[in-house]
Structure prediction request, 84 residues.
Amino acid sequence: MIFAPPPATRFDLNFRLLGFPVRIHPFFWLSTVLLGTYGGRLAEKETAIRVLAFVLAAFISILVHELGHALTIRWYGRQSQVIL
Prediction:
């Protein structure tokens, strides 16, 4: 199935936020770093700082967005989780 959540790994980051279980798969970090490089070289200090800022901003933005979905699902009386 194309929209199935990725299988859990031992490298997943797991925590709870607003009562929702949150799981962050390592591929989320990898894909966010790749998107944040803009074709630049990570060896350059300025590029590395920019990529780190991009990853942090993307993480917060996507997490808040997905929490909106989870809160809506909770409003309708269903259980939800967030998987990035």
